[in-house]
Amino acid sequence: MKLLSTLLSFTSLALSAAAASTPITIRGNAFWKGNERFYVRGVDYQPGGTSNLTDPLFDVTTCQRDIEVFEDLGINTIRVYTIDNSQNHDECMQLLEDAGIYLILDVNTPDASISRNSPRCSYNSDYLQTIFATLDEFAGYNNLLGVFAGNEVIDSENTTASAKYVKAVVRDLHRYIQARDYRAIPVGYSAADIEENRLLAAQYFDCGDDEDARIDMLGVNDYSWCGDSSFRVSGYSEKVDLYSNFSIPIFLSEFGCNTVDERPFSEIESIYSTDMSSVFSGGLVYEYSMEPNNYGIVEIVSDTEVRKLSDYDNLKAMLAKTSDPSGNGGYKNTTIVQTCPDVVDGVWESDNDIPDTPANAEKYIEDGAGSGFGIEINTLNACDEDSLEDSSSASSSSRSASSSSATDDDEEESGSSSSSSSTASSSDSAAIILAPISFYSLIPFAYIILSALFGFHLVL
Fold first, then answer.
1. Residues β-bridged to residue 41
2. 3-state DSSP helix/strand/coil % of the chain, to nearest 5
3. Can you list the residues of the chain whose pLDDT is less than 50?
4. Phi first, then psi: what are they for 146, rounded to 5°?
5. Which of the following is catalytic: 36, 68, 152, 211?
6. Does 266 reside within a domain?
C-alpha cells in the first residue's frame, strides 16, 4: 500500500511538471497551451536598461528576488530584450518554469542587431552566429514562448528599407530551428506603432510564398491608451479593425502610457475582453524596473529587495479583477497570407526580394553555431563581409570589437535595434587584409639597404 501511495505521488508530481512544461503553440491567430487559449499577461523585464546592460536571467539571486514579485503580480510571461549567450541560464529558467512563467526573448543585443541606419552592413555571418548561439542556449527550455528577430527597427517613415533585412533574419532563424531539429519555436517581430506604416509593416512581415520568411507572431509596442481612456477614444478599436484579417497571433509587446502619474492600467479590461480577443492575445506592460525613462512598476533597492510602487499596486489589482475571455475568445482558425505592400519611395521601400543568407553563415546552419561570445560582441559594421571572412585574423577582430556605434537613447531604453554609423566601407576591410602584404613587400628593400650600409649578407 505504501509503495502504491509513493507511485501515485510520483505520478502526480510528474504530471504536474509536464503541465507546467507545456510549450505554447500556435493555431490560427491565437496562442494555445495544450487545448486552452493562452493570453500573454506579463511585463517587459530588463533591470538596468541599456545604461547598465546585464543579463537578468543569469544571476540566480536577482531571479529569485524578481520571480517572487512576478508570482505576486499574477503574470504568466516576461519579455527580455538582451541576454548573454556565453552564460548558462538553467537555474533562472527553471525558477521561471516552476512559477509557470514563459519567456519571450529578443535574440539581439544593442551591438549585434539589424541597424536601421546601415542594414546591409549589420546583416552578416558574425551577426547570425551570435543570434543562432542565443537560440541554442534557450531552445531547450519549454517555457520559451518565442523569439523576436527585431524590435522597432522601423521607427519612422524613412527607415522601411531595413525591413527586408529583418525579414531575412526571420527566414534564417526558421532555417536554423529546422536544421537543429528544435521544436517549432515561434519567431516574430516587435513593431513600433507608426501611424504611417504600421499596417504596411505587418503586411510585409506576413506576406510572400516563402513560409520561412514570414513571422509566426507580431508584437505591437502601443502607448495610445493614456490614463482613464476608453476602447474607442484610445484608438484600440481601430487597431482591432486594422489587424482583423491576420492569421497570426498579435499582442501588445509594450503598453502602458506614462503621461499620467500613477498609471491606472484601465486598458487591461479591454485587452482581456471579447472586444479585442478575436485579434489580440494579451500584452506586456512596459516595464518592470524603474529606469531613467520612468516606466517602472518597482524600484530596485538591492540584489535581494525591490520596492513596489503605486503603479505596481494598480496593475496587480487590474490583473486580479480581469479574467481571460471564456472559451476560445473568438479566435480565427484561418491561413490567410497577406499581400506584400507596393514599393513606394518615402512610404514603403522594401520589396520581397530579401537578401540571401550570407555564404559564410551556411556552415552555422549545417553544423551549429558553436559557443556564444556574450553581450560585448559588435557585429554592426561588417560592410564587406567576403573580405573580412577570407581573413581569419579579420574575423577574430570582428568578434572582439568593442561597441563603437552611437545609439539613440530612446531606442536603447526600449530595447530596440541599435543604430550605427554607415561610414564603414569596403576600403576599411581591405586595409585589414592588405596591411600584411605591404609589410612583407618591404623586406627585400630592407635587405638591400642593410647590405649596402654594413657590408654583410643577411640570411632570409
1. 283
2. 35, 15, 45
3. 1-20, 386-460
4. 180, 180
5. 152
6. yes
Owner of C-alpha cell 541597424 = 115
Q: Is residue 70, in this structure, part of any structural domain at all?
A: yes
**Who's near 194: CB < 8 A, 6+ residues apart?**
154, 155, 156, 157, 201
- The contacts of residue 353 (CB under 8 Å, 6+ apart) are 164
The verdict on whether 71 is a catalytic residue reads no
Could you confirm whether 157 is annotated as catalytic?
no
Quick one: pLDDT at residue 53? Answer: 86
pLDDT for the residue numbered 283 = 99
Find the catalytic residue in 137, 254, 411, 413: 254
Nearest to 220 by CA among 113, 148, 133, 145: 148
| Three cell numbers, residue 3 | 509503495
Range of the domain at 268: 19-321
Strand residue runs (E) in 11-100: 24-27, 30-33, 36-38, 40-44, 77-80
Task: Give Cα 263 to chain centroid, integer Å.
Answer: 26
In whole angstroms, give the CA distance from residue 83 to residue 415. 11
Which CATH number does the domain housing residue 125 bear?
Answer: 3.20.20.80
